[in-house]
Amino acid sequence: MIKVITYGTYDLFHFGHQRLLERAKALGDYLIVGVTSDSFDLTRGKINAQQSLMERIESVKATGLADEIIVEEYEGQKIDDIKRYGVDIFTVGSDWKGKFDYLNEFCRVVYLDRTEGVSSSELRAEKRELRLGLVGESSLLYKFERESHFVNGLRVTGVCAQNTIEFSDEINKLPFVTNSLEELFPICDAVYIVSHPSKHYEHAKAALLAGKHVLCESPIAISVKEYQELKQLAYDKNLQLVDSLKTAYSTAYNRMLLLVKSGVIGEVKSVDTICTSLSDLERKEGKPTPFTWNSICAWGPTAILPIFQLLGTQYVSKQIASHLIEGDFDIFTKIAFVYPSAVASLKVGKGVKSEGELIIQALRDIFMCQLHGGRPNTLRLEERIQHRIKDTFTNWTGKVSDTNWFRF
């Protein structure tokens, strides 16, 4: 029996989907269809799928062509599925030609001609286009603009900045560049704010008052009072105010949280994080400019996120130590927290360098588990609990090391 496997989102199921499944079915005797999960679609930039996972599965099931339907949940799953189900042929549309040639090592790869004139992406774009304006002076805008091209229905329409020295050629070539928010607002539905943190409240408030959704780099505001005002304003105007803390939306990070909170490694006793970078101050010969973010604004939200999510905010005490230059610009800060039954620490730096790291230590009977983040690092568990987490961590990396250490 020849087994065939194919994958897709199958949002707004249309004739093109039907034809591709028919041709995939004709390649063999048994067709397995992988439908991408909502969370996996988000990691691939598909932020505007209009149907739920179950609706999309039902659409595929209704064709009667799939002998088996599975859910695709993580990068690297295709190799796992091919091995698990004994697949002979992997097939997708010709618009992916060359992308999956690496799978030829495991089975035959076939690219099927797609049906011209119809696609879910085009249907979504026609129904819902989001015009996005960029606000700020950071070099992060180049990365954001570049990656926006991979998101269906998203179009960057312009940028507002007081200084364009850090801008790439691509940003400067945007159709509209201005130093006035009032000029930017008419050509966008939402704004992405990555200006200096001291300006976030001002820029976010102006955008909300103008009826624009706001995606803002952390911190959204410098004080609790300012944040609460922005939150209430967004609520009153039925607008979205979203913190652009990328780690919080990472699939691997959220799986790690679920694993730890499940109790598989026992009660958490210590959480330690390190986030640093050299680049900004290197370019500026070690001196901050009015647009340079200090260490606590640049890395503080990322470093403190796992601490508060795992241990909460009701700590007993905290101690903060900072190294300041140019008056009040901190290039390095260390914060130590003491909880009723745990401890935590974070180190953040600009112009100093260390390996990015997240270490979680927990005690359960006689074993200890450590999770290291930043660059891919390791998790170590006793033999008697490895079977409970092996599949999860293999999902993140595609393999398990011989020493029983897992990377994410």
Précis, in short:
33% of the residues lie in helices and 27% in strands.
Strand order of the largest sheet: 8-7-6-9-10-11
Q: Strand-residue fraction?
A: 25-35%
> What's the helical proportion of residues?
25-40%
CATH architecture of the largest domain: 2-Layer Sandwich
Structural class: alpha/beta
Tally of contiguous helical segments: 14
The quaternary state of the protein chains shown equals single chain
Described by strand count, sense and barrel closure, the largest sheet is: 6 strands, parallel
Report the CATH superfamily of the largest domain: Dihydrodipicolinate Reductase, domain 2
Uncertain residue segments: 365-408
Average pLDDT, all residues: 80
Task: List how many beta strands DSSP finds.
Answer: 19
Shape: globular
CATH third-level topology of the largest domain: Dihydrodipicolinate Reductase, domain 2
Estimate nothing, just give the exact number of structural domains: 3
**Mind telling me the C-alpha Rg?**
24 Å
Q: Which CATH first-tier class of the largest domain would you pick?
A: Alpha Beta
Distance between the amino and carboxyl termini: 37 Å
